[in-house]
Design brief:
Layout: E1 7-8, E2 10-13, H1 29-42, E3 46-50, H2 56-68, E4 73-79, H3 82-91, E5 98-105, H4 108-115, H5 119-134, E6 140-145, H6 152-165, E7 169-174, H7 181-198, E8 203-208, H8 215-224, E9 229-232, H9 246-255, H10 257-260, E10 262-263, H11 271-282, H12 303-311, H13 339-348, H14 355-371, H15 377-387, E11 396-403, E12 411-418, E13 421-428, H16 432-444, E14 449-457, E15 466-474, E16 477-485, H17 488-508
Helix pairs in contact: 1-2, 1-11, 2-3, 5-6, 6-7, 7-8, 8-9, 11-15, 14-15, 16-17
Bound molecules: 3-methyl-2-oxobutanoic acid and zinc ion.
3-methyl-2-oxobutanoic acid binds near residues 18, 173, 175, 207 and 209.
Length: about 525
Amino acid sequence: MSTHRGERVIIMDTTLRDGEQSPGASLNHREKLEIAHQLAKLNVDVIEAGFPIASPGDFEAVSRIAETIRGPTIAALARTVEKDIESAGRAVAAAAKRRVHTFTSGSDIHLDNILRVTRAQNVERSARSVRLARTFSDDVEFSAQDTTRADREYLVELYTAAAEAGATTLNIPDTVGYAIPEEYAALIAYVGGRVKARFPDVVISVHCHDDLGLAVANSLAAVRAGARQVECTVNGLGERAGNTSLEEVVMAIRTRQDLFGLHTAVNTREIYPVSRMVSRMTGLTVQRNKAIVGANAFAHESGVHQDGVLKQRTTYEIMRPEDVGMEGTDLVMGKHSGRHAFRHRLAKMGLSLSDAEIDAAYERFIDLADKKKHVYDDDLLSIARDQMDAIPNAYELAYFHVSTGTGAVPTATVRLRKEGAVTQDASCGDGPVDAVLKTVDRIVGIPGRLLDFSVQAITVGKDAMGEVSVRVAFGKDVVSAKAASTDIVEAALKAYVSCVNRVLAGRQDAPAAAPGPPRKTRRARRSKA
Ligand code: KIV
Ligand code: ZN
């Protein structure tokens, strides 16, 4: 099947910006950079790398991506506020292809309650912002939030003013996931059609949220109504119920080329590797029955289906697993695998670790391979991710012991090392995890309140590593971290210590609170846009 017929639909990936706003998702700079590398391999057209005004951390993450990643355009988000736009413009300055994306709101409910400006003031401020953004980049995107609850005539006026001021892409978002496909298509056709009648070169873009489970359906309906950019995220991550899922939209356009008559430039064979990387790094698991990238997406269970597929795959398969890179990915490694094979496997998964990081990761791999027979790609991703988590001068787990059992009082001893000095303490708890975490609190002297705690097996089998994700409040600072081990108490301990380190690092280096769209606690938290 040819995937290169018809016009191209531009794929703007916003995993690192809107996707990172997923409740529970948190990515450090290094993880963002690795994902950006993988998105470049996926060949998306635009990577929205973050919201630089939000914090110095966000600014730095976007700048690093702009300096390093070649191929896709690197975009940065900014409100229609001078200092936001300047920050976004500076953050993407080093990119070979850069974009400033400035946004306001389009509905009266937002104008009256959030922005507190009149419609006319909003038009004037938007046009001014686009003109300022053009001084940083010839490629400027303009969005108005909540267009699906806005007055269409007003949207035409607002988007026309943005186009007149020099916006090259006009994004018409369904911010609250309110639209139904026919209705959204009609909105895109109307507003897009009216503005394009005067500015034929502008690209109409769509950005949908999944509150009613219709983000992909709405995006595809909009494409049929003339939109030529889709904003989406890997695994459909994003604020609340998430954004349009990149893999679903791309594969729908490809699989139903007969209907759309369009194509994307995405290298679909990289879809599964990037999905996996994003899932491991954010700690947000992909549900088994998720379209395209779920573990069951290509599994045929019923006898009738299996029989059909064995006779002729196309009886029940509209796509092939290899089309999305799902075959041949899980090369099993064991303790006899050498350093060279290890390095090669990490590189194949799109990870670019330094020599020192490879050495440290290899030690952990050998240690793990001693405990469990098969080490899978997801285990390796988890080990590699831990290397990217390093915070200088941080606490490190030196030793722990916990005794527990039916009728016993769980009691823990923990030793933490910091800058060469080892401190130890002991405590009881109502379970082994409670006991070790309480002991950490005693050593560190800043008690944390566990807000979320989840354990998940990374791969299959009784010997699988368990990944523990925790969210901890230290006073007003809320931080998240993950850690994996074949011992889940050790994983919990490491994840908790990682939160302690983050909060201490954040307190030393707390950025000024940044204004922005609704955001979670920024200080001492891994950067989130
Ligand atoms: O959902 C939304 O409207 C957004 C904008 C900033 C584009 O994320
Ligand atoms: Zn959004």
